[in-house]
What we know:
By secondary structure, the chain is mostly helical. Helix content is 75%, strand content 0%. The protein has helices spanning 3-8, 11-29, 41-58, 63-71, 74-95, 98-108, 115-130, 133-151, 155-172, 177-186, 190-214, 233-243, 248-266, 272-285, 287-305, 308-319, 326-344, 347-364, 369-386, 391-400, 404-408, 412-426.
Amino acid sequence: MTDRSGALALTPLLLFLALFFGAGLYFTAQGEPMGFYQLRAPVAILPALALAAWIAHRRGLQAGDILLRGMGDPNIVLMCLIFLLAGAFAYVSSAIGAVDAVVSIGLSAIPATLVLPGLFLLSGLIALAIGSSMGTIASVVPIALGVAEASGLDRALVVGAVIGGAMFGDNLSVISDTTIAATRTQGAQMRDKFRENFRIAVPAGLATLVLLGALGSASPIDAEPTGSAWLMLPYVIVLALALAGVNVLIVLGLGIVLAGGFGLAFADDYGVVPFVGDIWSGFEGMIEILLLSLLIGGLGALTKASGGLDWLAGLIAKLARGRRGRRSGEFSIAALSGAADVFTANNTVAILVSGSVARDIAGQHGISPRRAASLLDIFACVAQGVLPYGAQILLAASLASVSPLALAGSVHYCWLLGAVAIGFMLWPGRKDVGAIEAPTTRS
């Protein structure tokens, strides 16, 4: 495979990124608040699939068979099933009032002098439980705005703390779509990836708490807890089972049943019919990422069969000046993940796009699947949390009527996470103790 033909095989991926990113810039310039979400990624990828199939066909490959094998890869199908169950659990939990209960009970326990750290911690716990930074932001920002008004704190600072907490929890959550994508593409177990992330995210989170505590004091806030504390129990059980290593499909299935049962027992006007409808609504909320996962699987298979991924891996090795080892491989994966997120403005998409290449890099440099998955998720999170055109900041900016650029500079956690992660990779003498582990497909 020549350099030219290998590079040509990557043009479908570049076409997808150009369409998605270009459309986002165009609609943003036209004044559309959510410009990067006017052209949906599953639609933007269709011309790229057509081009990839044509390139494969020109090389004498069976493009249709390769496409279907990529879409039907067991890891891709399992990931899609996990997405569906995670969506159903998150939606049912929200519908029974569990998120509202966590928010109100948490706010009532925050001392006035620790409003900013408290909001960060509260957002982190919610995102950790529901596996969604967007859902957390949508739930907490409206309440945080009231906190900002009551306490006299700057809106951008308060909302930035919420976004940072949401990214912190989402990055660690075992039911987050980014965690699912990172672990499946790298062949890692979720509990191992959690432990690896924990070593980096928690120091960054603690540093964020200290920084937020020093950035300002606030006036007392009156908040009364509402909702039953029992509604939070399904979150706790799901997290505990997942960390104990129980199969994620069993964990999420049990979580859905528990959330519905607790809703029937403790939520007002909640019955079997709404429960069934909420499961379907949760499925619907995951359709876009499910379709994109299937199509990305097909595009990745075509790109790999045509030699594009081999060429890219060779290019990254050349940029690393031929050096082998943990450090150069980790920085390559970090740069790949961050760059992909800058172009896609979606951390899950970035992980899906760069996952197979990252896995090849990890194998070449002796990096364990759990560390590769952790780096993919962390650096996609870092980029996503500070992009002014990313969904998280755009949603928060629209809810708070604050400039996205102002918010980007106020998400202190993501900046600190990037710094801690880089320091972690540079730490002398650190060994990847899991590098000899064989990749696994278990969850």
